Amino acid sequence: MTPLSAPPRIAGLRALQAFGLTLSTLSLAAFALLSGAGPGSAAPVAGGPAPQFTVLIAGRDIVYCYYQQPCKDQEQRTGLVQPPNTDTVMLVKVDGARVRVLNIPRDTNVGPFDRFKSVAQQKVNSQYWAGGPEALTRAVETITGERVDAHVIVRTDYVARVIDALGGLDVTVPEGGIEWVDKAAGVNLNLAPGAHHLSGEQAVLFLRVRKGFGDDYGRIDHQKQALTQLAARLRSPQGLTALPTILGGIGNGVETNADPNLLAALRPYLGGLKLSFATLPTDEIPGTFNLAVNRERLTALWNDTPAAQSQAGQAQPSARVRVVDASGAELGEALARALQALGYPQVSVNRTPQSNEASQVFTGQALQDANLLAEALNLPRLQGERFPVGPGEVGVFLGQDARTALAALSGPGTAP
After folding, report:
1. Long-range contacts for 94-98 (Cβ within 8 Å, ≥24 apart)?
2. Coil, strand or helix at 235
3. Which of these, 220, 211, 206, 230, lies nearest to 384 by C-alpha position?
4. Does domain 9-302 have CATH number 3.40.630.190?
5. How far apart, in whole angstroms, are the C-alpha atoms of residue 188 and residue 186?
6. Mean of the pLDDT values across residues 111-116?
């Protein structure tokens, strides 16, 4: 098999951020709030009885002073081979127990495109280098139309140890397998098709490659699935065991103005967090690689509450549902019967080998229907650009954890 062609060494290391900082959304960033790292703190956010705030999460490059040689001082800004861009940028909106994560593609244009300005300098990933976290914050506010209450900028060199502390990552390698050998960069990743349990080091390499996942959007969608799995572990006893490792790694690797009281306000809600993930909808700007925000679709993402039912409760589900059963307990057929009894017109079941990946609801644009199912099943909802669902279709992935999360399906009398 021909090895995947690696990007230039230094530029290629940015891809670590694409997953690493997504993970930091629920781990490193949260514990950065707890530790109060950084010289300044933003004013506490008043949100009434339930905390309401937004946090910008960004992953900055490791800076290099020589070819393949990281600088000893990771905070220096002179004498660099390449400036530290932020290729992973996310806005996290917290409303009590509801946490929504919006991934912003690195090529997103800040404001209207100006053909008389540098194309690269208009991208969101260049704003941190141009003006620090304040400039990046202003850019994200311009892009999303949302106020940003605090920022957390995290370096990527903690990612592998955090994944290890959370017990590694369970993945399913697509048909064709993955082979990436690059001796000069110290990369030797060979994974056959099927289920694998990866160490932190293997996981960050696996989540860099595009093979089997299409393009950057496909890789982002895949990373959301991985985060869903790790977020569940973070809230488990294993997550508590991992705290010393995660906290010990923050040290000088986090740049934030977040108020430590934000996390304290969240503590009563941690046990019942409802997570949803989405990608900023964009359109291509002709003649460039830059992307323009699609405001209409963004509004739909923010207003993604389940469709309201009538007073008599007669609203009928209209979405087609695709159940992927990797529970190892044949829960898919039981879930299909239950959904059909609730009025879902088309429910298909595809049984796959047992998986330790996290159960979830996923969709492309059928947001309200997906939210309705996610609420009913108490599962995270993922929206993405490359999930294997068609228009008006919602997918439900049942991993081994569904045996506990949806235990009622395994008993007699499953269907309502």
Report:
1. 94/51, 94/52, 94/53, 94/54, 94/55, 94/266, 95/50, 95/51, 95/52, 96/50, 96/51, 96/52, 96/269, 97/50, 97/269, 97/272, 97/273, 97/274, 98/273, 98/274, 98/276
2. coil
3. 220
4. yes
5. 7
6. 96
Count CA atoms within 13 Å of residue 247 on its CB side: 11
With a pLDDT cut of 70, the percent of the chain lying above it is 74
Cβ neighbours for 349, distance < 8 A, ≥ 6 positions apart: 323, 325, 332, 333, 335, 336
Query: pLDDT at position 247, please?
Result: 65
pLDDT at 263: 66
Pair 258, 239: CB distance under 8 Å: no
3-state SS, residue 174: coil
d(CA 236, CA 208): 27
- The angle at the Cα of 351, spanning 345 to 356, to the nearest 5 degrees, equals 115
Q: What is the 8-class DSSP label of residue 385?
A: S
CATH code for the part of the protein at 320-410: 3.30.70.2390
Overall average pLDDT of the 181-206 stretch? 80
User: Radius of gyration of the chain from Cα atoms?
Assistant: 21
**Calpha distance 48→377 (Å, rounded):** 28
Task: Give me the amino acid identity at 61.
Answer: D
Residue 351 is inside which H or E element, if any?
Answer: strand 347-351
Q: What is the pLDDT of residue 397?
A: 95
Q: Which run of H or of E encompasses 90?
A: strand 88-95
Longest C-alpha distance within the chain, in Å? 69
Q: Is the pLDDT of residue 205 over 90?
A: no
Instruction: Please name the residue that has the structure tokens 């309401």.
Output: 52
Q: Which residue has the higher pLDDT, 42 or 132?
A: 132
Mind listing the pLDDT tens digit for each residue in 282-324? 999 999 999 999 999 999 888 766 544 433 444 567 889 999 9
Task: Average the pLDDT over each of 13-17, 50-54, 130-134, 332-336 and give the range with the smallest value.
Answer: 13-17
What are the domain boundaries of the chain? 9-302, 320-410
Does 6 have pLDDT greater than 80?
no
